[in-house]
Every structure is written in structure tokens, then in C-alpha cells.
């Protein structure tokens, strides 16, 4: 993105003092000095989060009740159905609860929602599957908060329900035996940022105590890390400690299915994984089968113990992922063409819908357009008289609040502030388009200006070695929602080489006289324009794994051409 880049300026005196006190590069100290000003006392703990720092779970409403009911099922040999949503958080949560219960000897029937049969949540087809399974207890994972009618029907069949969810809670009381959701008004648990997989792990620790049997719940942290990052949960507080440790468990490679998926994402190179690797390599592969068909293969690969079978499943998922990418490529091109045909690029919010668009891909397409256009976007896959769609927006925009303002034009919607799904009648799409524009135009002062998404946070200090800065940046992991990785300002960078690779732009840059690789996603068409130019850059600093990981690489976010 070519734009005027604001120079954050040199490190302050307090940043220089922090660098010396904590032993950090000047660049990272300057960012911490701005981002965490006045929090020096907690900085060391934040840089080195530990599981011992987790919030005690005692105040999580219904936790003991849920653990006791599961323990009763284990002791009595009851069959337990574990039902997860079709996305990564639901699948990892289902895997966690299934693995826990099986470790304690329970008979478990794992089930997942389907986009194409029942849709999101504990639907009528899901209810029928649970009743038909012969289970006496149901545990829902990443759904259930909005499913009171089906849960009530479940109770009429004599089946108890334990609901694990983190979505917004309706006013209607939930007819479940236990309801684990920190967003309940009557829940005193102070940390509200958990994804469902984190709640599932907490339930596992409580179940272990209730049964008084050994089980190391830390072995589940790789699943917690994947589900938390994939669901765009905030990477602060308890989540920061869980994901930091979970990435270490993931790197150890004990879960053969996740290892196989990770190797596919890294091109067969085994290396330490970051939250970005999870978000862009592992999670999309877990989600791919459920986008195009049956998500159960993703659950199978997470639970698989045999390495040979795990690699077979991972290969199957890889083929599905490639098919998903091709469908996505076509839909993104069609959606952008429609934006231009409608003259919608400068609209406050954008709604697009078309008969025949793939309902499993609309969320990815909405995310791509929201990033490229810096606007909140709704993409709807129409099928006859109605359609299902997804809403995405630049960081900071409160999607759920905006949809509430549009609810009169919708059949229904659900989700949270970072992502949501919806259903709309085909003949009301234009009404939704206008309502969405109006809702997005309202905005709020605390929402991030999407047009500033590529502006740098901190200047690369001229006294710092790039690899020293990179090592310090890795101490900030996990980065993502709630803890974004710093965007560096690099002035007067010379472009020595530029070439298009599969639509992306590979660069050879001169940074203070040193040759550094660069990567500019989705900007392969700018190779000729930028070759041998001089730029101010906004970029993130990463390891260049194609060169063995011992060299730095710049992930370019934005640029400003210099005369």
C-alpha cells in the first residue's frame, strides 16, 4: 500500500533507560516504552508469562458442577457425546474434551457441526445425531449459548448438557445442566478473553481433580494455542501464558497429526512455530475440510496417534486446502470486480452477494476484502431465496455492534466483535447494504482507523543489529489480536531486486548498507514500479526460513516512494 508513512521518531530517554535496564534493543525498548508506558513493574512478568500466573478458575460459574457431572459419567460408564462447531476453535475444543474423557476410560462419541447440514451451532440435525448416538450426556464445544430450543428438546429426551462456549450470551436462560461461559452476567471469573478451547482445558483440569486421577493437561496446550489463535481471541492475560506454552508443546511435535499439518504449512521444514504460523498455516488447513464438506477429517487428524495414518490424513487435508484456495482465488477476483462495478471502494461498509458463491469460503473472502479495502465487509452466498454470509472488518471495528443496528434486515446473525455470520433473504440484500453502510458510518471513537492499519509503530534504531531486534521481537510472542506485533519504520531503503512470485512480491533490499530479503504479499504487480527505487517502509521483521532461519526478512506492510 503506497501512502504517506509517519515517522514515529527516535527512542526517548525513558526508552533508552529501559533498554539498558531490561537488556533489550533500543527499537523494542522504544515500542514497549510507548505501548506499555507506566507498566514497568509488570514488564518482566509479561515478557516471560508462566502457567503459574493463570487466574485461579474458582470463580468460573458452573465449573465444579460440570466437572462433577463428567466424573459421574466416567464412573458409571455412560456414553458421552461431544459436539463441536465446525471451525478451528470448535474442532480443537472437541478434540480436547474427547481426548480427556477417553484418557479416563469414558466412551465418547465425537460429533461436529456442518455448514451444509444444520449450519452453525447445536442445530436440529445435531440434536437428532446426539439422540441417535445413545449418549446420556452432551458436551457442546464453542456453541450452545444461543441454542436454547434444541437444548430444551435434548432435556426432554433425558440427556444432560454441559455447554462450553465463549460467544455472547442471550438474555434467555439456558436450559443446560452446566454452562461454562465467562460472558455470563452471573459469572465472576475476571478474565473474559478465553476461546472455547481454553475453557475446555480448564474443565479438564477440574475433571482430573474430581476423579483424583493423574493426567497432564499441559499436553493439551498445543490444541489450546491453535484454537485460541485461530479464533482471534485476545493474546493477553491468561491467553498469553497458555499460547506461549502451547507453542512450545506444538514445536515439540508430540501430537503427530498437528506435526504433519505443520510440516505441510512450512514446506516440510521442521522449525519453531509462531502465532503467525498457526494463524496462516495450521488453522486454515484445519478449517478447510469444513469449508468444503465434512470437517470430521480435521478432528481425526488431531486425535490420531499413529504417525503413518496421521500423515495420510494430513495429505488428504492438503488436497482439500488446495481446492479451497482455488475457489477462494476465483471468488476474491469476482468480489473485487463487483466492488469496482458498483463504485463501492469508498463506501463506509460493503455488502456483496451472488447466487452460486460458495458458502464455506465467504468468511475468507470477506476477510481478504476487509484487509485490502480497509472497510467492514459482508459477503453473502445466495442460494435461491436466501443466503448465508460472513462479516469481517479491519482491526478495532466492532462487527457485532454494527450487525445489531442492521438486525431488522436479517433473518438472524451470530458471532462476536471480530467476526460474525448471518442469514438474509435474497430480496432484502439491498436493504442490508444500506443498513450496513449506515451502521459502519456511525463508528465509535475507540475503533481503530482502518486507513492507519499500515502505519508504523516504532522506528528501527540505527544502533541496532537486525538479528538482535528480531530476537527481542520473539520475546513478545505470541502476537496477534490484543497484542499486535510492532510495525517498524525503515527510512530510505534501497530496492536492489524485485520479482513477482505467484502473485506476491519478493524483494532484495539494502537496509543501512546490508542486504535483506523482503516479501510483499499480493503485490507482485508492483515489481517494475519499485525496482531500483528508494522507499520508506512499514514492515514487520521475521526470520527468513528459506535461508535457514538465521537471516532476517522484512514483511512489507506499506511503502512511501522517495524522490
Topology, element by element:
Elements: H1 13-22, H2 26-35, H3 40-47, H4 63-76, E1 79-84, H5 88-103, E2 107-112, H6 124-133, E3 137-141, H7 148-156, E4 160-164, E5 178-180, H8 196-211, H9 221-230, H10 237-252, H11 256-265, H12 275-292, H13 296-303, H14 307-342, E6 350-355, H15 362-373, E7 377-383, E8 386-392, H16 399-405, E9 412-415, E10 420-425, H17 429-442, E11 458-459, H18 466-474, E12 488-501, E13 504-511, E14 514-520, H19 527-530, E15 534-543, E16 552-561
Parallel strand pairs: 1-2, 1-3, 3-4, 4-5, 6-7, 11-12, 14-16
Antiparallel strand pairs: 7-8, 8-10, 9-10, 12-13, 12-15, 13-14, 15-16
Features:
Diaminopimelate Epimerase, Chain A, domain 1; five-stranded parallel sheet; five-stranded mixed sheet; 19 helices; alpha/beta; globular; OB fold (Dihydrolipoamide Acetyltransferase, E2P); about 575 residues; single chain; 3 domains; inorganic pyrophosphatase (n-terminal core)
Largest sheet: 5 strands, parallel
Strand order of the largest sheet: 2-1-3-4-5
Task: Identify low-pLDDT runs.
Answer: 444-448
Number of domains: 3
CATH architecture of the largest domain: Alpha-Beta Complex
Could you give the distance between the termini? 17 Å
Radius of gyration: 24 Å
Mean pLDDT: 92
Please work out how many helical segments DSSP would assign: 19
CATH level 1 name of the largest domain = Alpha Beta
Based on secondary structure, the structural category is: alpha/beta
Q: What name is given to the CATH topology of the largest domain? A: inorganic pyrophosphatase (n-terminal core)
Percent of sequence in beta strands:
15-25%
Counted beta strands: 16
- What global shape is seen? globular
The percent range for helix content is 40-55%
